[in-house]
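Appendix B. Raw example, untouched.
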Amino acid sequence: MIESTMKRIEALLEAADQMDPARRRELQGLLETLKGEVKILAESNQEEAESIAGFTGLTTHEVIRKSPDPKLVSISSEGLMASVEGLEASHPRLVSAVNALCTFFANLGI
């Protein structure tokens, strides 16, 4: 399920022709890093990994819409941040990847 979610996110991003190419490449890199960390988490906690992948998909979808809704971006970003709470000690690189992604989304100014 995680792999299919991440592939769906990648497809959404590829289709987001309204997004600046440099920003798209940056987001692709962040998502690639997150994908690797989510796979590591899935080895020990599949449900948590699926939640993180799901919130990543929701947030990415909201951000790359032609007319993003700031409220939905905020709600989905908060869900993404909440999905890694408590994982700081066991999966610091995953938490760092989510933080970097949420910072990227916040810096878009939506």
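End of appendix B.
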